[in-house]
Write a structure and sequence with these properties.
Length: about 475
């Protein structure tokens, strides 16, 4: 379908505006500290909006409505865990990281366990971020291809280069400010879609709720004790561990704590970013439920054979008023671009601090060269991976299973260092090996007892318990 001139104006105005606005911060990056932490002077609401935008990718923008359309609101329970994690972060993690004299989230692991721990966490982070860039670019291109008919490789390359340009030139300041604007576009787009759907029902908004109630679409899942299915409790615990991992060990979040102008602003940003995601994700789930009610009431409007995950993109193009369609397409791009720019800048920061600067004195000019070069290379690698995913989709699933193994080990290692004071490096290493082995077995083995959501939960707990018990045993042996 061809978009109207107004839709094209809205869409391209967003892309051009983002690119120009991001590049405008180039002159403000006078040194590497400005480039990676914005000199620690950004206001709380901007940092909070950036944290929120980091949560939402173009994948979740389309996947959450798709989940609600196909099922119920059980995945929304994941969002309900975020206020708990963000409160813990604001109270403990934010002041902890702001007191560390390093922009890297993994410098602390070196202090506690040695350089091996820092390298392990950094490499795991970098590998997952490159995969994240490629995945987001590819999965963002799919709906844009179906809606606009544009070539998937062209979408990946053009959108990728747009993000790379302003990420490389603008540094973390450009990333966070554009994240904030993109977050506002996201909210505006989802709210506009909710309102259109509410008032598009043949018998009015009340019909939407009556149909949703009839099909039990607002259910949060079973409250039973079955660990093999996505019950309310399984999803809640999974969400809590994933979000503690995000706030506690993910460089994307830790770097944002450092950009706030003071401790109070950083704590407020962590809370604001997390809490904002709850109502916005509710909008996304409501859109999915509303789409189900809309096409149940008017089934002739949906072409036969339209896949469940393609219903929302179809509605964006065919069911929204002129101008709003352009806004929603811009919102999908905004979700993807904010995620990619975050990964590029944070990964470049880790490469500089954890590898180039480690026990080596570098001039600030050298630091900037490394940041520029690695940001560009990371963007190119991500685009290349996105293009490769067009033909190797099975590898994508295998990779994300490996990413779960890496990230599970990172969280457990951090918790050992943060919570267990008398622990040796070897104890932590044994704990990580045991935990990663359990996660690998649960990921690739024929596990039918526990749902896959519990993989990172059990793996993290095992890492912590093994390290803690070994340290406790050593202390008792010494006291004899």
């Amino acid at each position: 379908m061809e978009l109207s001139i107004l839709d094209f104006i809205v869409f391209f105005a967003f892309i051009a505006g983002t690119l120009l606005f991001g590049c405008s911060f180039f002159s403000k990056n006078r040194n590497s500290s400005e480039y990676t932490s914005a000199g620690g002077r950004l206001p709380a609401w901007v940092v909070g909006m950036s944290i929120f935008a980091t949560y939402v990718s173009s994948i979740s923008f389309l996947a959450l409505p798709g989940n609600a359309y196909m099922g119920n609101w059980n995945p929304f329970v994941f969002s309900l865990s975020i206020p708990i994690a963000s409160w813990i972060a604001a109270k403990y993690f934010v002041p902890f990281y702001r007191n560390i004299n390093s922009i890297s989230a993994y410098s602390y692991l070196e202090e506690r366990f040695g350089y091996w721990a820092r390298v392990y966490a950094s490499c795991c982070y970098l590998l997952t971020q490159v995969a994240r860039i490629g995945s987001v670019l590819y999965l963002m291109a799919l709906p844009l291809h179906s809606m606009l008919g544009w070539s998937i490789p062209a979408i990946i390359i053009v959108s990728g280069f747009c993000v790379v340009i302003y990420s490389v030139l603008g540094g973390i300041t450009a990333v966070i400010w554009t994240d904030a604007i993109q977050g506002i576009i996201l909210i505006a787009g989802s709210l506009a879609c909710v309102l259109v759907l509410l008032f598009s029902m043949p018998e009015g908004p009340s019909q939407l709720f009556s149909i949703a109630k009839e099909y039990d679409k607002f259910s949060l899942g079973s409250f039973g004790p079955d660990p093999g299915t996505t019950t309310f409790w399984v999803t809640l615990v999974y969400g809590l561990f994933i979000n503690l991992q995000n706030y506690g060990i993910d460089q994307n979040y830790v770097q944002r704590y450092k950009t706030a102008k003071d401790d109070k602003s950083a704590r407020s940003a962590a809370l604001f970013g997390g809490l904002l995601y709850v109502p916005v994700s509710m909008f996304f789930f409501f859109i999915g439920t509303a789409l189900f009610a809309y096409y149940t009431a008017s089934p002739e409007l949906l072409p036969e054979g339209t896949a469940n995950d393609a219903v929302f993109p179809y509605f964006i193009v065919h069911g929204l008023p002129t101008g709003i369609t352009g806004l929603l397409i811009a919102a999908i791009c905004a979700a993807g671009m904010s995620t990619v720019s975050t990964s590029i800048n944070s990964s470049a920061t880790i490469i500089l601090t954890d590898f180039f600067q480690h026990k080596r004195k570098m001039t600030d000019k050298q630091n900037m060269y490394v940041l520029y070069a690695t940001s560009f290379i990371l963007g190119i690698l991500g685009m290349g991976l996105g293009l490769a995913m067009m033909s190797v989709q099975s590898a994508l699933e295998a990779w994300w299973s490996l990413a779960a193994i890496f990230s599970g080990g990172m969280l457990g290692l951090f918790l050992l260092g943060y919570m267990v004071k008398r622990i040796k490096s070897i104890h932590a290493m044994i704990g990580v090996v045991c935990g990663v082995m359990l996660i690998a077995w649960m990921s690739f083995g024929k596990n039918t007892v526990f749902h896959s959501y519990l993989t990172i939960v059990f793996g993290t707990i095992l890492i912590f318990l093994v390290g803690f018990l070994l340290s406790l045993f050593t202390v008792k042996q010494r006291s004899k």
